[in-house]
Design brief:
Blueprint: E1 4-5, E2 9-12, H1 22-35, H2 43-48, H3 54-61, H4 67-87, H5 99-108, E3 112-116, H6 121-130, E4 139-141, H7 153-162, E5 170-173, H8 176-184, E6 188-192, H9 199-204, E7 209-211, H10 217-220, E8 227-228
Parallel strand pairs: 2-3, 2-5, 3-4, 5-6, 6-7
Antiparallel strand pairs: 1-8
Helix pairs in contact: 1-4, 3-4
């Protein structure tokens, strides 16, 4: 029987990779810290923890605090995001330049597309619907159902749901957490230079290559594929 290529999956992080969401993340985190009677972290520090699941992100910001406070601030962060949405004051979370075109090109080239994000299911679904991208992705993995990055659970679940082989698949993200998760799952990793971690951090965490613009992604994707002999 003729050989055929294994399905290839491109797994994207969301915040800092597909969309620029830093304004809302920073405002919600500042609100949560203020409600706890704490001085909010600097915005540069908040951007550094984007990509982690929420409790882990708070813990990274105030490691000296106990788990109860981490969970309380995380709950207040979610509440702040809800208030932003219901009041209509949430800032736009635009797609980064070239992202939509890159997704189209990759799909036309035969790539399956997925998302692995520290967002909640609700937050991710609302975002994708807003941008008309809900039907682009065959698998959506969020912090609601998995441990935080850099644990490989989200990436492994995405591969399983898509029926893809890790040897032909890629993790694409803007943080060191994405790169470490991808490597732990056996994936090739592509960092993006337009997000919230420095290029040096991406390389140190295992990025095989770093894209300087979304339009560069399609030409950085390919590597020899494992062939199915069945």
């Amino acid at each position: 029987m003729a050989t055929r290529p294994q399905p290839r999956l491109a797994i994207f992080d969301c915040d800092g990779t597909l969309v620029d969401s830093q304004a809302n993340i920073c405002v919600a985190m500042e609100d949560a810290f203020t409600r706890a009677g704490l001085v909010p972290p600097a915005r540069a520090a908040i951007r550094r923890i984007v990509g982690l699941s929420l409790v882990e992100a708070v813990a990274a910001l105030i490691p000296q605090a106990d788990t109860g406070l981490h969970r309380s601030i995380a709950a207040d962060y979610k509440a702040a995001f809800t208030r932003l949405r219901t009041s209509g004051t949430i800032a736009p979370e635009p797609l980064f330049d070239g992202v939509e075109a890159a997704l189209t090109t990759l799909a036309d080239d035969g790539w399956l597309l997925g998302v692995a994000t520290g967002k909640s299911d609700r937050g991710l679904n609302l975002l994708l619907a807003h941008h008309g991208l809900a039907d682009r992705f065959v698998t959506l993995q969020t912090a609601d159902r998995h441990p935080s990055k850099p644990d490989p659970a989200m990436a492994l679940a995405a591969l399983a749901e898509a029926g893809a082989d890790p040897l032909g698949s890629v993790m694409i993200g803007d943080t060191s957490f994405d790169m470490a998760m991808g490597k732990a799952a056996g994936l090739r990793t592509i960092g993006v230079a337009w997000g919230y971690h420095d290029v040096a951090d991406l390389v140190a965490a295992g990025a095989d290559v770093v894209a300087d613009h979304a339009t560069a992604l399609p030409r950085l994707m390919d590597r020899p594929q494992v062939m199915d002999q069945s």
